Amino acid sequence: MANLEKEPGFPFYVVSRLISQAYREPLESLSLTYPQYLVMLCLWEEDGLMVSQIGERLSLDSGTLTPLLKRLEAMNLVKRERSEKDERKVGIQLTYPGKSLQSKASLISSSLDAVFANWAEKDKSKLEQLMNKLLESLKSHSQKF
Amino acid sequence: MANLEKEPGFPFYVVSRLISQAYREPLESLSLTYPQYLVMLCLWEEDGLMVSQIGERLSLDSGTLTPLLKRLEAMNLVKRERSEKDERKVGIQLTYPGKSLQSKASLISSSLDAVFANWAEKDKSKLEQLMNKLLESLKSHSQKF
DNA sequence: TAATTTTTGATTGTAAACAATTAAATTTAT
DNA sequence: ATAAATTTAATTGTTTACAATCAAAAATTA
């Protein structure tokens, strides 16, 4: 494993995919994918966000978000409405079913609890802290976000 | 941010994508994507691996690897040869251009150095340690890997 | 041996992810 | 005011990523 072990990015790549997989089963009850769930979390926090604002929060661009939001619209969870003031902007509004889904979603965020079950609290909080630090470092070196 | 902040998986999701983006520019000189680069790393470490063995090392299944390997074959970096002993198995051999590419690849693993430049050595090693621990925890809860 | 199960990779279909480009509207500068 | 630059989202094309299924071969069991 000499080569792969020298790649500092590799564990992050695998961990991210395994986490998405861990969310898959719990999210089936909402018929959402993991990225769709994250978009819904944004909107439950603040309804009526512009596409660009969702993109800022999730570090995703319109090439990813536009089709994803159209799928959420097709599921009748959101409405996409072009702003009248600035017709470049598209606001994303939760529909009633979209708002209602939040109650079902409260259990999802504990999907990783089993994974961390036998972890020391200290390690969990340290990892969280270092991941946030890394996120900031990466963003400050990123052109896009 | 109340909702997103409660999602323990979110930072891993963003970090992984920002890391892939950070590798994009350095990897352009090899005309490789990040996942293709990881496959090549496996093969530079051990030539002639079966598809399933690459999948184990990278936690990827054949639905991802088969088309990726066909692209590497189209680039003349690998050959795919069905085993004579067990005709279900397909061995992946490096071509001469595939082997030669390794010399150009030595610089790639330092693509994140700038990101970690002002990090304390202690934090870096702690993060690496905790990520490997998390990887093991996730794998032990995974059906697939 | 014959039937069943497992292994292995390929295929199909859907959904992200993102670079590059386009189009339209707004803002800024001249 | 008008030209140039910026913002914003959509579009296009390529590449992952993965579930589900299939087919063939091999290994196991009856």
TrEMBL record, chains A, B:
It comes from the Bacteria. GO terms for cellular component: cytoplasm. PROSITE patterns: HTH_MARR_2. Its main location: cytoplasm. Gene3D superfamilies: Winged helix-like DNA-binding domain superfamily/Winged helix DNA-binding domain. InterPro entries: HTH_MarR-typ (IPR000835), Transc_reg_Sar_Rot_HTH (IPR055166), WH-like_DNA-bd_sf (IPR036388), WH_DNA-bd_sf (IPR036390). This is HTH-type transcriptional regulator SarZ. Keywords: DNA-binding, Transcription, Transcription regulation. Residues 1-136 form the HTH marR-type domain. GO terms for molecular function: DNA binding; DNA-binding transcription factor activity. The keyword Transcription regulation applies. SUPFAM superfamilies: Winged helix' DNA-binding domain (SSF46785).
